[in-house]
Amino acid sequence: MAGQYEANLHDGSIIERIRECIFLTFLGTRSLEDLIKATENDKTELTELKQRLTDRTANINVIGTLVVSGCAAFLTTSPPTNFANWLHLFPYVCIGTAIGCAMLSVVTGLGLLIVLNVLDPKLLKKVQRNILKKVLFLMLLMMPLTFLGAAAICVFVAWIGAAWYGVIFGIKLAMTMGCLLFFFTLFMAVAVIY
Asked: What is the pLDDT of residues 175-185, one digit of tens each?
């Protein structure tokens, strides 16, 4: 079994699976080459892809904007609970970081919408031929969702930090158990997929 794992590691199949997962998450296809082949043969495929990416990016921008406004409202009001220490510096730093990440998500989403408006097969071929353009294009596709995920993690960490700086042991225990369960579930999902 261990020998088979090492063989899979060396032949690139695990790397390929991770790469395919990233592309499926951010592009909706297994690779940029598959995307270009699909759009070369069928113009409706390109139109559908542009519409799908535009809708997804618009949704990310709406959620990012809501995160910014929600976090800003949190920072400007009195603490919402008495069982967590929201007056400590750590939750405020995390909430401020969440605002920054959410704003970056919205800004990169707007940049992606601009690129999607001019996306055509010629541009996709240019992107495929030039490694710098390919990397920049893929980064632009990934940035809105990545920054929004980072904002969500920062808000989650702020909640955990505020509870841990609080005085109620039961809340601390519940937050710890919840985090352990979350990471265990995440580990199980990754182990099943890969």
From this structure: 889 888 988 99
